[in-house]
Design goal:
The protein is of the alpha+beta class. It contains 9 helices and 9 strands.
């Protein structure tokens, strides 16, 4: 979440007239995240989140994202619920952008992660994967192999501005992933972006999953690879096998992994690291003027990619090969 489009309290008050959510009390921009414009919206009826969809989110994908949140909320998963207007619609328009108001979840994202948090995340992720088995809508993953290949081609010429030799590293890695990427593992709807700032905790208990705007159809275990990269590395870039073991064990308490999924985890973790290296590289090279959020360091994910390149088998992630 972030603020790219600035709106006034008057703008928000006028937008609220289409809802039965009371009148505006306070409007506060949310600085974290990289995709959409988000505000905490406090009204006389409660607290909500106002989201304005920026250019990276395509309008034709919005029914999928909103339908998915409604589906998960109906299954009692801890995720935001889109609020309906007086007309019954969910999507509106504000500042020339599609906009939605969603429920505000209790809790907060973590500043310090311990193994129990990773176990909670694993259980929640597996529960989400099972809960969407009957979700009728589909969305292709635009940020998988074909998308990465285009991004490598686009960024290779300027990648060395960030790190000398990075362009060649990207080209070599995408060639390896194309040669070995699995296609016959269990698939379904995945979150695809479940970073710590997209997960809320109330003490030791996970109480919220948010930001479903990368959700798509893909390999279920790829979602776990994203979480390994996002949750199991320390600030000094070292990999924490204890956290990884807790994450995977928590996941398998709810949805056991097949032998083929376990075997594919190192390669999928490489793919996940490349995906975030590429999108961070793009954002670093094409910074948005005056945005409250600053682009994240792409080289963090180069270090993670290099770790996974050196993994010989899945024992590196905390279980027997």
């Amino acid at each position: 979440m972030a603020v790219y489009t600035k709106i006034s309290e008057q703008d928000a008050s006028e937008f609220l007239q289409d809802y039965d959510l009371g009148t505006l009390v306070e409007l506060t921009g949310i600085r974290s995240g990289v995709e959409n414009t988000n505000y905490f919206l406090t009204t006389t009826a409660g607290r909500y989140v106002l989201t304005l969809y920026e250019k990276r989110v395509h309008t034709e994908d919005l029914p999928f994202f909103i339908g998915l949140m409604e589906h998960l909320a109906a299954k009692n998963l801890p995720c935001p619920k889109p609020q309906k207007m007086k007309s019954g619609k969910v999507l509106g328009h504000l500042a020339k952008r599609a906009a939605v108001i969603i429920s505000h979840l209790k809790g907060a994202s973590l500043t310090r992660i311990v193994p129990n948090d990773c176990a909670e995340l694993g259980r929640a992720l597996a529960a989400m994967h099972l809960s969407v088995a009957d979700f009728p809508m589909h969305r292709a993953n635009a940020l998988s192999l074909p998308g990465w290949e285009k991004m490598v081609e686009f960024a290779a010429g300027r990648a060395d501005e960030i790190f000398v030799g990075l362009g060649a590293i990207l080209q070599k890695e995408i060639a390896h992933l194309k040669a070995y990427w699995p296609t016959d593992l269990p698939k379904g709807i995945i979150h695809a972006d479940l970073f710590p700032d997209n997960v809320f905790f109330d003490g030791p208990r996970l109480c919220g999953l948010i930001d479903f705007y990368f959700a798509c159809d893909d390999l279920l275990v790829y979602d776990l690879a994203v979480c390994l990269n996002a949750w199991c590395f320390e600030r000094d870039a070292s990999f924490n096998i204890t956290k990884a073991r807790a994450l995977i064990n928590g996941y398998e308490e709810v949805r056991p992994l097949s032998a083929a999924e376990k075997e594919a985890l190192p390669l999928l973790s490489r793919g996940s690291a490349l995906r975030f290296l590429l999108t961070r590289l793009h954002d670093w090279l094409h910074q948005v003027p005056d945005a409250l959020v600053k682009p994240k360091d792409p080289l963090e994910y180069l270090i993670k990619l290099q770790f996974h390149q050196g993994v010989q088998n899945v024992s590196a992630y905390g279980f027997a090969p």
